[in-house]
Amino acid sequence: MNTITRLVVYLILSLTVAIANAQETKIDSTKKSSNQYKIEALKDLKSKIEKEEREFLKQEIEAINQRLDDKQITAAKAEKLKKEAAKKRAANIENRLAIIDNKIALLARNESTYEANDDSNGYISISFGDDDDEWTAIRLGKKNKPRKYDRRTTQDVVFAIGFNNALIEGESIDDSPYKIGGSGFIELGYAWKTRIFDNTNFWRLKYGFSFQWNKLDIKDDQYFVNNDDEISLQEFPSNLNKAKFRTTNLVFPVHIEFGPSKKIEKEDYFRYSTHRKLKVGLGGYAGLNIGSMQKLKYKEDGNRIKDKQRGGFEVSSFVYGLSGYVALGEVALYVKYDLNPLFKNQAIDQNNISVGVRFDMD
Predict the structure, then answer these.
(1) CA of 249: how far to CAs of 246, 323, 331, 344, in Å?
(2) 32 DSSP assignment
(3) Is 0.85 topped by the overall pTM?
(4) Rg (CA), the chain
(5) Is residue 17 part of a domain?
(6) Residue 219 backbone zone (phi > 0: left; psi -120 to 50: alpha; other: beta)
(7) Same domain, 168 and 97
(8) pLDDT per residue over 264-321, tens digit each?
(9) Which of 92, 129, 172, 287 could potentially form a cystine with 133 if both were Cys, beta carbons 3.0 to 4.6 Å apart?
(10) Last residue of some domain: 82, 109, 143?
(11) Which residue has the higher pLDDT, 140 or 203?
C-alpha cells in the first residue's frame, strides 16, 4: 500500500475512531466487540467445514462406485479407496478445525484486528495490520474440492473469420456483384460439447450460440435500393468510392461432431482429449437477424460523404442454414450457407455463403 493510500486509510480510521468515541456513551454496554463478531463467524465456519468435507467425501465415494460399476477396479480395490478417502477427509476436518480453534483463541486474547481466514476453504479473510496499514478483505470460492470423475460436457469459445459472398440464381461466383477480397464474415460465440455415448467419445453433440457479422463489398458503383419493399442493386448517381452492406445475426448452431480422441485415465478421474486430433462437424443453425447497415462513401461538391443507412432493407428476420467444419486440433476449415434468402423481397434470389477458418478453444 503506497504512502498516499496509507494516509487516506489512516485519516478515515482516525475519523471513525473519533466519531465512535464521541458516541460511546450512547452505545449499549452489551454490544459485542468486533473480535466477538469474528469469533462467532469462525464458530459458524467450523460447522461449514465439517459439512463441506463430508460432501467432498460423498463425491469421492460416488466416483469410486462409478469406477466399480464400469469394471475398472475390483470390489476390494474400491473398498480400499473408500477407506483412504474417509481417512483423508477425517484428517482434513481435524486439521482445519484445529486451525479455526487457534484463530478463535488468538482473537479472544487480543483486542486488535487479526487475520482470521481459513486458507484451506477460501471462505472469508479478515486481515490485520499496524496503525498505518489496516484493511479488511473478503475472498470467496472453494479449494480442496475433488475432481469430477467423468466430465461428459465441456464448453469453449468459438471464433471464425473468412470470406463472405452470395450465391445468386443463374450466376457463377465469378459474376457476383460482390468483391471476393473485400467481403468477409466474423463469428464469435460460446459452445458446449456433450459426449453422446457412455464408453466412447467418437460421437459428440456440439451446440451453443453465436453472433455472425456478414459483410458484402459491392462492385461497380452499385448500392442497394428499396423500391416498395423490393430490394435491388442500382447504379449510384455519382462516383461511389465504397459501398458495403452488413447483416448481424444471433444464431444457435448445432453440430454432430465425430472423430478420434485420447482417453486420459487417472486414479480418481478420466478425461477424453481431442488435442491434435481430426474432428468433423456437420449441422446447421437457426436464429434471428438483429441488424443491417449499408455504408456508402462518395464525394459530393468536392466534399467527402460517409453515409450509414441502418435498417429498411427488408432483410430476412428468421435466419437458418447449414454449416460444417473439418478440424485438426483447435483450427478448422469452416463453411456456412444461409438457406433463407438475404432479403424478404429481392429482384434476384441470393443466399449468403461464407468460407473461412474456425477456432474452437476447447
Answers:
(1) 10, 15, 23, 15
(2) P
(3) no
(4) 32
(5) no
(6) beta
(7) no
(8) 888 778 899 888 899 999 999 999 999 999 999 988 877 888 888 888 888 999 999 9
(9) 129
(10) 143
(11) 203
For residues 202 and 259, the answer to whether their CB atoms sit within 8 Å is: yes
Other CB atoms within 10 Å distance of the CB of residue 83: 10
- The three-state secondary structure class of 259 is coil
Amino acid at 336: K
Rounded distance between C-alpha atoms, residue 48 and residue 147, angstroms: 20
* Distance separating alpha carbons of residues 73 and 146, to the nearest angstrom: 19
| Domain co-membership, 98 together with 216 | no
Distance CA 323, CA 196 (A): 20
Q: Whole domain around residue 73: which residue ranges?
A: 26-143
Question: Is 297 a member of any domain?
Answer: yes
Residue 260, SS3? coil
For 187, phi and psi rounded to 5 degrees?
-130, 135
Beta strands in 87-238 (DSSP E): 153-168, 184-195, 203-217, 222-227, 230-235
Cell numbers describing residue 30:
452489551
pLDDT digits (tens, 9 = 90+) for 75-134: 888 888 888 888 888 888 888 888 888 888 887 877 654 444 444 444 444 444 443 333
What is the number of structural domains in the chain? 2
Instruction: List the one residue out of 283, 286, 284 whose CA is nearest residue 256.
Output: 283
Q: Please indicate, yes or no, if residue 20 is contained in any of the structural domains.
A: no
